[in-house]
Automatic annotation (TrEMBL), chain A:
Pfam families, alphabetized: PX, Vps5
Organism expressing this protein natively: Oncorhynchus kisutch (Coho salmon)
GO CC annotation terms, alphabetical: cytosol; endosome
Protein name per the record: Sorting nexin
The UniProt record lists the keyword Protein transport: yes
Lineage: Eukaryota, Metazoa, Chordata, Craniata, Vertebrata
Length: 400, 719
């Protein structure tokens, strides 16, 4: 793994071939009932400047694929294209389409690295090395996280009974050339932005309309509530993690300074520094885990709400259309037909939505459980480690 | 008694000794009986020498007694006498086991020296070795045994040792235990004592020799001093000189007896071929000898033993009158410091007054066993400026001598204003507590410093009820302004003075100190930011806890909801934990660093002081050089009228140069000592504080584990 902050950042990463403690679980926010018919993973990724090239590896027994085992190179944009394609497919309106993976963000660690390079003169060599190590670890963690969210996206698609059979998805997996998907141009970007505006305005209007189904009514309020709260929680968790990180960084500095002090002071202090260093990295580790968990969780929830809102909007639209037609008493048959269609669609949507939502609930609970347990265990583990270190250190100090 | 008899006594008594080693003894014994009474003493002196066991003694013996007789020695001996002379000698002797008994003993020894009389002593010296000396013990047999049972002897011995040190009570504090810890020794001594007198031959030295080389010495002392004790015990007050009535010795006053004891010693020195023309000084010379004889032999720990013996000859050798003396004093006091309990605590910070004139008063409680204080516990109220005032006084007095005066915490207008405004909020309470702790540490550092503790101002600060208000401690008063200017000029001159350092040690140390200062400052900033970040973390954790609680409340899965609210609770506790940890960060760690940053300032000041004295010395030398040149010129120009003036100038400046050089040497020595002491203290302090800090960290980790372990089943219960 070579990494040079100042020039091209090239990180070749095999995230799961090596265990680093960070990649504890592949599916952090989802519980995937993987059947063996379609297995997808990203064993490799390459980072070149802003572009990250993922190697998407598929193993399948399905006859719709030409080979049982193949790999293709894909970029982040390809994932976005796939997501958009799925969202725009009318048939999937009643489904919860997994959220698109976020754009890889290497800016902050890179920036920090740059800053560190500038501040090199003010730090002792040891301090600098330690900070650099820390940043590299952070960079690595970000990288891994990125790979992971992309993988999770694909895995969720593959595990979905309907979505896994999508044509675009299969093309995405199989086509071994560069997909060279068209990037959105400015107009389209604006269009999608406008669409979002309309949608949110729509949502406001829709919210006044009485829900016909209690289940959805409940779900709606719940999700709205839940979404806002989990958003808040995530923000705060992030804040907490950041400040924890700051504390950890302080420890690095302190330990480094103490170290240089202890050269002319008391050798016993040296041990202390090591401890602090480890406290720092441990905390870092733990908190990244925590943060990631919440990030993913909120994504799932947000996504759900989004889908649900869309479903509702569609339903409302169809109703409106029917009303209009009736009012005009013109083209009634046509309108009725349309209304019937809409109703059908809505029913279908409601049905699948119900199913999806229920499964989401279950998934969420399971994910929470898993992560909370993991987090608690990690906390305990780190605290115990710290304790052992501290104890050893105290004894050492006391003995000399 | 017949001289020949006593001679044979001694001869027989020294037999085992001669077996052991010494032809010198034989020589001495070959000397006529007239000097025989001194023989045992000589034996005593020779025996350890031949054994090679005690170097100091050899030194002393090789040094002529005349040298040892120099003034400081006398001073040393006189002073305790003056100090302690009020104590009723006899009373104290009656309770020999009590601590105070050292003083009267001293008196006994002193008084003959100061007032009582060279007369009896002279007598004794005039007819040395006459039977008198042997005589007294004879009738003494049983009473002596009695006395020995009372164990005054072992104590009696110590005062002698203590005497030259001038700090009798100090010694006594730790010595009694040790002395009594070796009862065997005194027992055997007792036996010997009795045996000497019972059957004056054979036994005397055979036993002690077998046991340890110290016994003869003890014997000697016992022999010498027992009559004293006895005399004061029995004491039908004085008939007369016991020279005249040897048998009357026990009715005689202790004083007179004692000279006899001492004089035995001086006689000894005579037999060693030393002139004892000046009897009195001689005695004290002998006292030194005794001391050094005593110390190596004594079972006292080396620490105790080596010191008193080392400084004792020192003043006598270096003819300089009084300078070395305080130094030995300090050394002794330093030792004392470790032995003595002096606990100072500052409690009950209290706001006095209202508005901007309000100030905080602190209760300063002292607990001590030091005799220099009037009582064992006392409490005074002091305000912050009093602490600053104390520092100013100490600093003015001691910094010029190269001492490191611990600095008090800085004035904090911000913090104090907050307190003054009277908001009872958290930060002002924290400020007050922080300052209280800082003041306590400051004061402890001051009293822990051996020479600062001796300062009357310190004592006054601790003891006096109505402290005069300290002035010129205002942050920007006129005096403060002056001081600032002074400081500015100081730092200017510091830059201009280019010292070609002769001592590498100082150069290295100064660099070390400066580097350390920088490191500490850096570290302090780091720790401050750590505290800040941790506080931030605490706040954020609190926010997160609330948010999770909300999330839990809207969660529709009951188990998950409960788990989330549990998580919220855990995070709440974590918030608390982080807060506490932040507090301990700042209290344990940041404060320590702040203290040491200030202290390093003082260390540097002492280095600067050294440089200043050096500069003064150099200036004086230059001046002298100039004066010499003028003299040469005058000589050349043949102007005898001005020549005398020039010569006077030269002598004046020569004196100054010597003086300044000595000052410089002295300051250098002090600085060196102080820096070493500072380093020792620092290492100890850091170790203590860091252990404390680590323990606080450990504790919070333990709490963390507890919280999370309690949470784990909740998480697992989610279904």
């Amino acid at each position: 793994m070579e990494y040079d902050p100042k020039h091209t950042s090239t990180v070749v990463l095999k995230p799961f071939s090596q265990s680093h403690g960070v990649g504890v679980a592949r599916s952090v926010s989802v519980d995937l009932n993987n059947d063996a018919s379609l297995l997808i993973d990203i064993p490799d990724a390459l980072c070149e400047r802003d572009k990250v090239k993922f190697t998407v590896h598929t193993k399948t027994t399905l006859s719709s694929f030409q080979k049982p085992d193949f790999s293709v190179p894909r970029q982040h944009e390809d994932f976005i294209w796939l997501h958009d394609a799925l969202v725009e497919t009318e048939d999937y309106a009643g489904l919860i389409i997994p959220p698109a993976p976020p754009k890889p963000d290497f800016e902050s660690p890179r920036e920090k690295m740059h800053k560190l390079g500038e501040g090199e003169a003010t730090m002792t060599k040891e301090e600098y090395t330690k900070m650099k190590q820390e940043l590299e670890a952070e960079y690595l963690a970000v990288f891994k996280k990125t790979v992971q969210v992309h993988e999770v996206f694909l895995q969720r698609l593959s595990s979905h009974p309907i979505l896994s059979k999508d044509r675009n998805f299969q093309i995405f997996l199989e086509y071994d050339q560069d997909l060279s998907v068209r990037r959105k141009n400015a107009k389209e970007t604006f269009g999608s932005f406008f669409k979002n505006m309309v949608k949110s305005a729509d949502e406001v209007i829709i919210s006044g309309i009485k829900e016909v189904d209690d289940f959805f009514e409940q779900e709606k309020t719940f999700l709205l509530d839940y979404s806002s709260k989990i958003k808040d929680s995530t923000a705060r968790a992030e804040k907490m993690t950041r400040s924890h990180k700051n504390v950890a960084d302080d420890y690095i500095h302190i330990s480094a300074t103490l170290n240089s002090l202890s050269v002319d002071d008391n050798t016993a202090l040296k041990k202390f520094t090591n401890v602090e260093g480890r406290v720092a990295s441990d905390e870092e580790l733990k908190l990244t885990e925590l943060l990631r968990y919440y990030m993913l969780d909120i994504q799932a929830a947000k996504d759900l709400l989004y889908r649900r809102a869309r479903a509702l909007a569609d339903y409302e639209n169809s109703n409106k259309a029917l009303d209009k037609a009736r009012l005009k008493s013109k083209d009634i048959t046509q309108a009725e037909e349309h209304q019937q269609q809409c109703l059908q669609k809505f029913d279908k949507l409601s049905e699948s939505g119900k199913r999806e939502l229920t499964s989401f609930k279950g998934r969420r609970v399971v994910a929470f459980r898993k992560n909370l347990i993991e987090m608690a265990e990690l906390e305990i583990k780190h605290a115990k480690n710290n304790m052992a270190l501290l104890q050893g250190c105290i004894e050492l100090l006391k003995s000399n | 008694m017949d001289p020949s008899l006593s001679a044979s006594d001694i001869a027989s008594s020294t037999k085992p000794l001669s077996e052991a080693s010494s032809p010198p003894v034989m020589d001495l014994l070959s000397e006529p009986a007239s000097e025989a009474s001194s023989a045992p003493m000589v034996d005593l002196l020779m025996e350890p020498a031949s054994e090679g066991s005690s170097a100091p003694m050899v030194d002393i013996l090789s040094e002529p007694a005349s040298e040892a007789s120099s003034a400081p020695m006398v001073d040393l001996l006189m002073e305790p006498a003056r100090e302690g002379s009020s104590a009723p000698m006899v009373d104290l002797l009656m309770e020999p086991a009590s601590e105070a008994s050292s003083a009267p003993m001293m008196n006994l020894l002193m008084e003959p020296a100061s007032e009582a009389s060279s007369a009896p002593m002279m007598n004794l010296l005039m007819e040395p070795a006459s039977d008198d000396l042997k005589e007294p013990p004879k009738p003494d047999i049983d009473p002596l045994a009695d006395i020995l049972n009372d164990t005054p002897l072992s104590e009696v011995k110590t005062p002698v040792a203590a005497m030259p040190q001038e700090t009798p009570s100090d010694l006594f504090d730790d010595e009694p235990s040790e002395l009594f810890a070796e009862p065997r020794q005194s027992n055997t001594a007792k036996q010997q004592q009795t045996s000497i007198f019972d059957e004056p031959d054979e036994d005397l030295f055979s036993e002690p020799l077998g046991e340890a080389s110290k016994n003869p010495q003890n014997d000697f002392f016992k022999e010498a001093l027992a009559p004293v004790a006895k005399a004061s015990n029995v004491c039908g007050p004085l008939s007369d000189n016991y020279n005249e009535h040897p048998t009357d010795i026990f009715t005689e006053e202790a004083m007179t007896t004692l000279p006899s004891a001492v004089s035995t010693v001086s006689v000894n020195s005579k037999t060693n071929g030393v002139h004892s023309d000046e009897e009195e000084p001689d005695i004290f010379a002998e006292a030194t000898v005794e001391l050094s004889l005593d110390s190596p032999r004594n079972d006292r720990k080396k620490k105790g033993a080596a010191k008193p013996s080392a400084p004792a000859p020192a003043p006598s050798v270096s003819a300089s009158a009084s300078k070395p003396q305080p130094k030995t004093l300090e050394e002794l006091e330093e030792e004392v410091e470790d032995k003595f309990e002096l606990n100072i605590s500052i409690t009950n910070p209290e706001k006095v007054g209202d508005g901007m004139n309000a100030y905080m008063a602190y209760k300063v409680s002292t607990q001590t066993t030091l005799p220099m204080f009037r009582s064992k516990t006392f409490t005074v109220r002091r305000r912050f400026s009093d602490f600053l005032g104390l520092y100013e006084k100490l600093s003015d007095k001691h910094t010029p001598n190269g001492y490191i005066v611990p600095p008090p915490p800085e004035k904090s207008i911000m913090g104090m204003t907050k307190v003054k405004v009277g908001k009872e909020d958290n930060s002002s309470a924290e400020f007050v507590e922080r300052r209280r702790a800082a003041l306590e540490r400051y004061l402890q550092r001051v009293v822990f410093h051996p020479s600062l503790l001796q300062d009357p101002d310190v004592r006054e600060f601790l003891e006096r009820d109505d402290m005069p208000r300290a002035h010129n401690t205002q942050a920007l008063s006129g005096a403060g302004f002056l001081k600032m200017i002074n400081r500015a000029t100081d730092s200017l001159s510091k830059m201009t003075i280019k010292m070609n350092e002769s001592d590498v040690w100082f150069e290295e140390k100064l660099q070390e100190v400066e580097a350390e200062d920088q490191q500490l400052r850096k570290l302090h900033i780091m720790v401050d930011s750590l505290v800040g970040h941790r506080k931030e973390l605490s706040v954020n954790t609190g926010g997160f806890a609330k948010s999770v609680a909300m999330l839990g409340s809207s969660e529709d899965n009951t188990a998950l909801s409960r788990a989330l609210s549990q998580l919220a609770e855990v995070e709440d506790k974590m918030e608390q934990l982080h807060q506490e940890q932040a507090a301990s960060d700042s209290f344990c760690f940041a404060e320590l660093l702040a203290d040491y940053i200030r202290l390093l300032g003082s260390v540097r000041a002492s280095f600067d002081q050294r440089m200043k004295t050096w500069q003064r010395w150099q200036d004086a030398q230059n001046m002298l050089q100039k004066k010499r040149e003028t003299e040469a010129k005058l000589l050349w120009a043949n102007k005898p009228d001005k020549l005398q003036q020039a010569k006077d100038d030269i002598t004046e400046w020569e004196a100054k140069v010597t003086q300044y050089e000595r000052d410089f040497d002295r300051v250098s020595a002090t600085v060196r000592k102080e820096v070493l002491r500072f380093e020792k203290e620092k290492a100890r302090d850091f170790k203590k504080q860091i252990i404390k800090y680590l323990e606080s960290l450990l504790q919070s980790q333990q709490q963390l584990i507890k919280y999370w372990e309690a949470f784990l089943p909740e998480a697992k219960a989610i279904a």
